[in-house]
Amino acid sequence: MGTETRTCAVALSAGTEPNGETPNNGIVPDANANLTVDFGFFVCPNNWAPVTVSVCAGTTVNLTTLEPVGYTGVFGTTMEM
């Protein structure tokens, strides 16, 4: 508990993303999706705790559904889970 998992920066540009990643199961056109960064986390069922997933662009998805007062995120940023 209390540790971080990070990746190097991933720059995204429309129409320039890697093609042919597998599985290509998204609804976004392949050239507009980057499936090369993926994390898997397991939480022990006997020790459930709130989980927060953040995107460096500033949008935060907090699975406890709580946001800091005044938090607005970054307009136009999307995260699908």
Short synopsis of the structure:
The protein has 81 residues and is low in regular secondary structure.
Order of strands across the main sheet: 1-2
Q: Provide the gyration radius in Å.
A: 15 Å
Roughly how many Å apart are the termini?
A: 22 Å
Count of distinct strands: 2
Note poorly predicted spans: 55-66
- What level of helicity do the residues show? under 10%
Strand content: 5-15%
Count of discrete alpha- or pi-helical segments spanning 4 or more residues: 0
Order of helices and strands: EE
| Class from secondary-structure proportions | little secondary structure
Give the CA-based shape.
Answer: elongated
Oligomer: single chain
Integer average pLDDT = 62
Number of domains: 2
Task: Tag the structure with descriptive keywords.
about 80 residues, little secondary structure, 2 domains, two-stranded antiparallel sheet, about 0% helix
What does this structure look like?
The chain has 81 residues and is mostly loops. It has strands at 52-54, 60-62. It folds into two domains: 1-38, no CATH class; 41-81, no CATH class. It has no helices and two strands.
